[in-house]
Amino acid sequence: MKKTFIKGIVVSSVLLLLISCKKEESATAAIDTNQIKDEIQAKENEFADTYNSGVVKDIGYHADDAITYPQNSQPIIGKKAIVDFLKTHRDSITVGRKISFKTDDVFVSNDGNQVVEVGNYKVVDSTNAVVNSGNYMSLFVKRNGKYVCLRDMGTSDMPN
Fold it and tell me: Strand 114-124 to strand 98-108: parallel, antiparallel, or no bridges (unpaired)?
């Protein structure tokens, strides 16, 4: 009788543990990946609009401790250095041209605090002819309730 009682407690404990794990899984399912993708795309649109306006400034896109890995260059470390880099390279990249970014996919952590974005970019001239295009990958983290880019890198798919 005593062994049956102990077996019952063990089985009940295991079932309780499995049920509580199931509840944790459903909590992660509450993350709306489409909403996060839209939020990241909005950040990309704001970045492109600001860059295309000719006024390169801090718009809250990059984290203070961000690192960007530009093509054919050493890593640029820190938000201020990234903004300075973009200012100095804008003239050689997009004057008279427009850049746009498209978020193709996002991979969201279970808690929603990290997002890896995979996307593509396009640079067009005043006639809308593509002069450069490529792909990029960015890591966003949620800080103070908003996503900021912590790491990003891109590569052109155009021949040299």
Answer: antiparallel
123 forms beta bridges with 99, 132
The per-residue DSSP string of 78-102 comes to SHHHHHHHHHHHHHHHTTT-EEEEE
- Read off the pLDDT of residues 75-134 as tens digits, 9 standing for 90 and up: 999 999 998 888 887 765 566 889 999 999 999 999 999 999 999 999 999 899 999 999
Cα of first residue to Cα of last residue in the chain, in angstroms, is 81
Counting Cα atoms < 13 Å in the Cβ hemisphere of 136 gives 23
d(CA 80, CA 82): 5
Instruction: Compute the distance between CA of residue 27 and CA of residue 29 in angstroms, rounded to an integer.
Output: 5
Please state the pTM of the whole predicted model.
0.77
- One-letter amino acid at 39 equals E
Identify whether the C-beta of residue 103 lies closer than 8 Å to the C-beta of residue 152: no
Paired tokens of 110: 């279970």
Residues with Cβ < 8 Å from 108, sequence gap 6 or more? 31, 33, 36, 114, 115
Q: Which residues pair with residue 160 across a beta bridge?
A: none
Residues 140-155 have pLDDT tens digits of 999 999 999 999 999 9
